[in-house]
């Protein structure tokens, strides 16, 4: 919101240095982006009068102008502007002048003729293209006839006014208007406001109710008012109005549109003007869009309306405006318009926001509807606009306002005590001081023995609870005046919860294993979100995603990791080892919000050991990533871990994937990504795992206890078993640990063989069993007894043949 200090002077007498004023606003109310004059960096720009203009003999576009700049004899200036006219007052940059971008003007000679300066357009002296009136967009600007020749141009163009650019936060939408800002400054500096209120002169011969009928759904528009102004002449606005608009960053268009924009800036009330003669059936209806409806908006874009979502203003032929966002081209005000129907309303803010985002039509009006409108000044803003349009367009206001809907503006009553105020702020404010602050804010105050009853006017819709009042007191009293105190209370040492400890331990362990941490987006596509899922879940999609790649909350971590792998591979990084710890989001059909679950996942591709003169290349394979999972689970204290051949993971290789169980609880999977998925990501063979970390945290895991290394010798026994090819190694190992005796400390598979000497359909697995005691030297008799016992049981349990 760009605030002109000169405009503010219309409402309160404030003789404060602009820089000090900006600092006070920033300390008390909202942030200030910058404080500036449009004339900053410019000099030597004066009013000139073109006495004569004739074509340059050696140019098809240049003109030789004799320009009076108030120095006696006219000066010769060459100008190529297509709209150049004699007998007009123009902007002249004399030799030595500085124009936009710090360009210095010098005396020049062009095609044999001397030019003693430059006749300037608005853009050349620093005006943005977006605010230059369209009639001067491609040429020079003509100053008013009363401009004094030779004087500075800055007062005529409003370039000498100080502009304070406010960065208004959503909770202070009341400051998105000149009057709202004036209320704030009056409270800060304890000044009296002097607002002018409209007095509309109506034509009693015609009533608006005889001209127009309006039907409103009050859920969509709780307030909807209209005025009609007839007999208008559409023309350019007076310069004072144009100056106020372009200083606020708004392009002047014509006297009707400019007034609606002026009232928007002044009151914070968006208005919309219809060409009354183009309204089919002399009727309007505020409703939701219907299936298949379209609207060509003022920007000449054909827009498909969303049925049941977009609020539209419709006449007998169909939609003529997107409520609170943009009007339709069919009923827009043109040079031929003679009668205007003027709308002032309050629309459903959430629907306006949805429409603005859906159609990418964010505007000053939609921003105000989204953040809030002062319901107490809707009717006054409409009257002020109608009065100005009639005055500037030589028209007449038709009798009466049309009130299709009007929700009464209600003040909010909040109770608070002086004790509470001082306790929160740490102050010793007197009752009179607090009362004065509330009165400066324009609140009605009733105080009795330190108990306040505060009536907050509708213009401050951000205030509704006692905490809001305390904030207002702190702001106006001055944050710098609040006492500074140190926290007082018993200090207790902080500590991590069990879950926090395990999460940090997981990250440390995976980094110890050689993996790098990745952090992926929590939003992805619906397709990617539904892959690698570990339990059935409904997708949770955003209503208004920022892009088509970020539409759905993730239900796995692997999709994001594969994106990271693909990103690296595309940049010639072939060896990628990444992990991610984070949350996924599962939702059942009956649930409104998804359930957050801690997961950990990893993805590896390329080589785990790069080749050298003494080391062989070792590519990543299933056993490498499975070993990392075993290492991680072992260090987390997981017991009874087993890996079983997996089925049902469509995104994983069907023969190289294992499900992971802890104490018969499914906690994840590990294996190779399906080749079709790898092809989709344009990556080579990739191995992954994903674990439900929340389940691992919740399971009764065994605390890792470090014990001294036994000083007694170990005894080893080897055994080779011929078993069916379908028999899993993990089951044999688990069985050996369960039945191998109390002295069995390690089981190691050192050979797998199929071929000569082994029956068809069988495979040979060779194990090394290590026995060791911590308190004595084991004898062969003890070890042999345990060994022979487990061998006998292996033969019966697995139908194994001892080789």
Note the topology.
Blueprint (H helix, E strand, L loop, with lengths): L1 E3 H4 L9 H11 L2 E6 L6 E13 L7 E6 L6 E5 L9 E11 L3 E2 L3 E3 L2 E3 L2 E3 L21 E2 L10 H4 L5 E5 L10 H12 L12 E6 H4 L1 E4 L6 E8 L8 H9 L7 H13 L3 E5 L7 E6 L5 E3 L5 E3 L6 E4 L4 E4 L3 E2 L12 E7 L2 H11 L4 H8 L6 H15 L3 E4 L2 E4 L6 E6 H8 L5 H10 L3 E5 L2 E6 L9 H12 L20 H15 L3 E2 L5 E2 L1 H4 L22 E2 L4 H12 L6 E11 L8 E11 L1 E3 L8 E2 L2 H14 L5 E5 L6 E11 L2 E9 L1 H7 L4 E7 H6 L16 E10 L4 H11 L4 E10 L8 E10 L8 H19 L2 E2 L1
Parallel strand pairs: 13-24, 14-17, 29-32
Antiparallel strand pairs: 1-12, 2-12, 3-4, 3-6, 4-5, 6-7, 6-10, 6-11, 8-9, 15-23, 15-24, 15-25, 16-23, 17-20, 18-19, 20-21, 21-22, 26-28, 27-28, 30-31, 32-33, 33-39, 34-35, 36-37, 37-38, 38-39, 40-42, 40-43, 41-42
Helix pairs in contact: 6-7, 7-10, 8-9, 20-21
Structure overview:
The protein is of the alpha+beta class and 803 residues long. The protein has six domains: 2-37 and 162-189, Phenylalanyl-tRNA Synthetase, Chain B, domain 1, CATH 3.30.56; 43-157, OB fold (Dihydrolipoamide Acetyltransferase, E2P) (Beta Barrel); 202-405, Phenylalanyl-trna Synthetase, Chain B, domain 3 (Phenylalanyl-tRNA Synthetase, Chain B, domain 3, 3-Layer(bba) Sandwich); 412-477, Phenylalanyl-tRNA Synthetase, Chain B, domain 1 (2-Layer Sandwich), CATH 3.30.56.10; 498-698, Bira Bifunctional Protein, Domain 2 (BirA Bifunctional Protein, domain 2, 2-Layer Sandwich); 715-802, 2-Layer Sandwich (Alpha-Beta Plaits), CATH 3.30.70. 26% of the residues lie in helices and 29% in strands. The protein contains 21 helices and 43 strands. Strands 3, 4, 5, 6, 7, 10 and 11 form a seven-stranded antiparallel sheet that branches. The protein has a seven-stranded mixed sheet with strand order 29-32-33-39-38-37-36, sandwiched between helices. Helix 6 packs across helix 7 (255-267) and helix 7 (255-267) packs antiparallel against helix 10 (378-392). 36% of the residues are buried. The mean pLDDT is 93.
């Amino acid at each position: 919101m760009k605030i002109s200090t000169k405009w503010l002077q219309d409402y309160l007498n404030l003789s404060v240095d602009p820089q000090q004023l900006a600092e006070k606003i920033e300390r008390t109310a909202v942030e200030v982006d910058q404080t500036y004059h449009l004339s900053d960096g410019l000099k030597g720009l004066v009013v000139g009068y073109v006495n004569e203009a004739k074509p340059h003999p050696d140019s098809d576009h240049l003109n030789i102008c004799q320009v009076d700049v108030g120095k006696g004899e006219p000066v010769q200036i060459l100008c190529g502007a297509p709209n150049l006219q004699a007998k007009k007052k123009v902007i002249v940059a004399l030799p030595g002048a500085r124009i936009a971008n710090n360009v210095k003007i010098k005396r020049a000679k062009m095609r044999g003729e001397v030019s003693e300066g430059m006749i300037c357009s608005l853009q050349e002296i620093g005006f943005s293209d977006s605010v230059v009136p369209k009639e001067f967009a491609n040429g020079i600007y003509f100053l008013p006839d009363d401009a004094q020749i030779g004087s500075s141009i800055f007062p005529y163009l409003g370039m000498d006014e100080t502009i304070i650019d406010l960065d208004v936060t959503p909770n202070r939408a009341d400051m998105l208007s000149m009057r709202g800002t004036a209320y704030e400054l009056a409270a800060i500096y304890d000044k009296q406001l002097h607002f002018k209120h409209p007095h509309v002169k109506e034509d009693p011969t015609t009533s608006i109710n005889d001209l127009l009928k309006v039907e409103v759904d009050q859920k969509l528009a709780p307030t909807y008012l209209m005025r009609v102004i007839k007999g208008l002449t559409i023309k350019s606005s007076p310069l004072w109005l144009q100056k106020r608009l372009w200083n606020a960053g708004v392009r002047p268009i014509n006297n009707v549109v400019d007034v609606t924009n002026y009232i928007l800036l002044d009151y914070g009330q968006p208005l919309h003007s219809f060409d009354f003669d183009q309204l089919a059936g002399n009727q309007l209806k505020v409703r939701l869009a219907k299936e298949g409806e379209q609207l060509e908006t003022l920007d000449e874009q054909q827009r498909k309306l969303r049925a049941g979502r977009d609020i539209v203003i419709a006449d007998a032929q169909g939609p003529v405006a997107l409520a609170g966002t943009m009007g339709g081209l069919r009923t827009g005000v043109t040079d031929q318009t003679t009668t205007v129907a003027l709308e002032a309303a309050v629309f459903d803010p959430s629907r306006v926001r949805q429409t603005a985002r859906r159609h990418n039509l964010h505007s000053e009006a939609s921003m105000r509807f989204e953040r809030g409108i002062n319901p107490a000044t809707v009717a006054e803003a409409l009257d002020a606009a109608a009065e100005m349009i009639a005055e500037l367009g030589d028209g007449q206001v038709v009798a009466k306002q049309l009130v299709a809907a009007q929700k009464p503006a209600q003040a909010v009553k909040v109770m608070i005590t002086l004790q509470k105020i001082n306790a929160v702020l740490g102050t010793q404010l007197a009752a009179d001081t607090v009362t004065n602050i509330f009165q400066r804010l324009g609140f009605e105050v009733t105080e009795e023995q330190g108990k306040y009853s505060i009536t907050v006017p509708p213009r401050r819709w951000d205030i509704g609870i006692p905490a809001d009042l305390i904030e207002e007191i702190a702001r106006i009293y001055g944050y710098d005046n609040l006492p500074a105190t140190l926290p007082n209370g018993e200090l207790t040492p902080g500590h991590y919860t069990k879950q926090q400890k395990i999460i940090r331990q997981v990250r440390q362990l995976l980094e110890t294993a050689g993996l790098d941490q990745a952090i992926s987006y929590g939003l992805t596509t619906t397709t990617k979100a539904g892959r690698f899922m570990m339990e059935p879940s409904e997708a949770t999609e955003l209503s208004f995603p920022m892009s088509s790649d970020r539409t759905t909350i993730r239900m796995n971590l692997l999709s994001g990791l594969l994106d990271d792998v693909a990103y690296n591979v595309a940049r010639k990084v072939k060896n990628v080892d990444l992990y991610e710890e984070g949350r996924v989001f599962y939702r059942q059909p009956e649930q409104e919000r998804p359930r957050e679950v801690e997961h950990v996942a990893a993805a590896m591709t390329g080589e785990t050991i790069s080749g050298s003169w003494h080391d062989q290349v070792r590519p990543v394979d299933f056993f490498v990533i499975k070993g990392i999972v075993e290492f991680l689970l072992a260090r987390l204290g997981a017991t009874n871990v087993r890996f079983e051949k997996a089925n049902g993971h469509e995104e994983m290789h069907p023969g190289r994937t294992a499900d992971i169980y802890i104490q018969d609880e499914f906690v994840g999977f590990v294996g190779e990504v399906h080749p079709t998925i790898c092809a989709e990501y344009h990556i080579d063979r990739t191995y992954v795992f994903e674990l439900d970390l929340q389940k691992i945290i919740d399971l009764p895991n065994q605390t890792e206890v470090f014990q001294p290394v036994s000083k007694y010798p170990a005894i080893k026994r080897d055994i080779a078993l011929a078993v069916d090819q379908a028999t899993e190694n993990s089951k044999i190992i688990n069985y050996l640990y369960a039945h191998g005796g109390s002295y069995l400390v390690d089981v190691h598979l050192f050979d797998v063989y199929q071929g000569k000497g082994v029956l068809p359909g069988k495979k040979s697995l060779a194990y090394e069993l290590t026995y060791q005691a911590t308190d004595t030297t084991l004898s062969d008799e003890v070890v042999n007894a345990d060994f022979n016992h487990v061998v006998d049981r292996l033969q019966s349990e697995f139908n194994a043949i001892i080789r």
